Amino acid sequence: MSSDVPTTTSTITAAGAAAKASVAGVSPTPGVAKPDPILTVDHVTRRFGGMTAVDVQHLEVQRGIITALIGPNGAGKTTFFNLITGFDKPSSAPKLIGGPKAGEAAKSSFNGNEVGNIGATKVAKKGMVRTFQLTKALSKLTVLENMRLGAKDQPGENLLVAIVKPLWAKREAEITAKAEELLARFKLLEKKDDMAGSLSGGQKKLLEMARALMSDPVMIMLDEPMAGVNPALTQSLLGHIQALRDDGMTVLFVEHDMHMVRHISDWVVVMAEGKVVAEGPSGTVMDDPAVIDAYLGAHHNTDLGDDSLLTDEVAEELAAEVTAEEGKA
Amino acid sequence: MDQFLTTLTSILNSAISPQTAALAIAAIGLNIHFGYTGLLNFGQAGFMLIGAYAFAISIIGGLPIVLAVLIALVAATIFALILGIPTLKLRGDYLAIVTLSAAEIVRMVGRSSLLTNVTGGSNGITGNEYRGPFTDLSFFGDGHIDFGPWSYDATGSNGWWFIATAWLVVALLCLFVWAIMRSPWGRVLRGIREDEDAVRALGKNVYSYKMQALILGGVIGAIAGIVYILPASLQADSMGRSMTYFIFTALLLGGAATVFGPVLGAIVFFAIRLFVQGVAGQFVPSNIMNGQQTEQFAWIVIGITLMLVVIFRPQGILGNKKELSFDVK
Q1: Three-state SS for B109?
Q2: What are A172-194's pLDDT values in tens digits?
Q3: CATH code 3.40.50.300 region(s) in chain A
Q4: Cβ under 8 Å to A: B residues 234-273
Q5: With contact defined as beta carbons under 8 Å apart, do B183 and B168 qualify?
Q6: Is A140 near chain B, with CB under 8 Å?
Q7: CATH class of the domain at A14-137+200-298
Q8: pTM, to two decimals
Q9: Domain B2-323, CATH 1.10.620 — does that match?
């Protein structure tokens, strides 16, 4: 890993071009099959009382590319994220008694393993590591300890081994070396002995991402990595995310600002009202009428406040559209 | 002056008494729960009672002392499992309520008249009934030993043999806590204290770690129960809610999440009480405050001290200001 991270998002690396090429032939329709999916999700719904927050029938995430999951506020992105990573349970999860029919139960497989119903810890152990929208830096641990906690295969995390230091000291040294390397890459090395709580908001985001990388994940899930981060740091965050992809990781991240994701994502999935309404390459998906609908409403170009523009013709047109929509519903 | 010397002697005596050691041990156990893992256990006295009853009843039943101690530890483990299995998946407050009431249940069952022939009912079990095997282990001889300001029988109840073993146990447990809390195992616990979900996202089985911590601290609580009753008698009411409160006070005074905090806190706790009682008894005329009232006054001062510590020095006497461990999540 090199410490010089591309800071401009316009740099197109060879890996980036390859990633884009891998999904070039995929047709931009919701729920489309990908050539090499790392994550496949079926029939995942989540209801809170009478409100259906998430209802995703089928979604595949291509291996080795950056996929952005976007959608307006309240589209169910974070809930969907929680469902995939095991932090929440789908309402459509298979139950012992009275669950959904066999073909309609929630199912998700990751990297060849069923991960639908195994809980957050095991999902993370399979190599799908996530971060949180509201950063969860462990404030009263030092930055370095935060990093060490992310590592796996530390025998000293077993109580009986923990008592005898020589049994885990060697692995601890390896972990520390790796942690310092990652901290250097994320420009946090000089902060390593500070409490994580003393970092700024953006630094906490960086720390959380670095901590997730400690376990060498196969796929990293970032929940709004850019939320509340100043523009300068956003650029460097975007650079880091691209660097992850270039290192061979699969990245899925949630964001609600679609312009933010335009440059760095290879594939964009758009959610609205709990459903996947569109997906496609980042360059073209923004022009999809369903996306414009979801973000801006169907009549974002019509100034309904200006009566002079509201000719009889327009009024009739709108009325016809309303009738048509009501008929559909 | 004479009375001042009396007060000083009683403070010195209480500083090394086995009962102080027992409080320190219970606080060491609670420190693993509250200080390191953030588990709100309001029933540490219940663990003490479980240990005390299991030990005393086993000895009276004719079992060898080693086996009796083992039974006490196993009993505390089972008690911890019963408390932990339903509550550790829930938020912290639930554990607090369950432990509080479970400790009361243990006390009420212990003092119930139905069990008088086993637990001695509300009169409890006198020390002579179970103390024998422990006294027989003594190699201190029969004489009387003067050491500095202290003068005790070598082996008799409240003698040097009891004091030495109690503090040896304290020292060993401090060593143990130091060894496991510097290890990666301790790091996971501290991570859980800060944010469970973050640790879960890193692939650690949070439930299992919390259970291990609950059992470990509870078992140490059971040891405290044994140490507490050895020089005295076993009475259910002596280990009630107020005992849990004393243990918390000792822990917070000394400093949670530190190795020696609980020990120092236990000594300071008794010293403050005796000092206030002594001074009030000497300088306040008995028509304003009589002997019984000075004792109550001492408790009031302890309560105020606890409040002042929490407000102005939340890390306790020994705690690390940066790692003040008061907020429980």
Answers
A1: helix
A2: 999 999 999 999 988 899 998 98
A3: 14-137+200-298
A4: none
A5: no
A6: yes
A7: alpha beta
A8: 0.87
A9: no
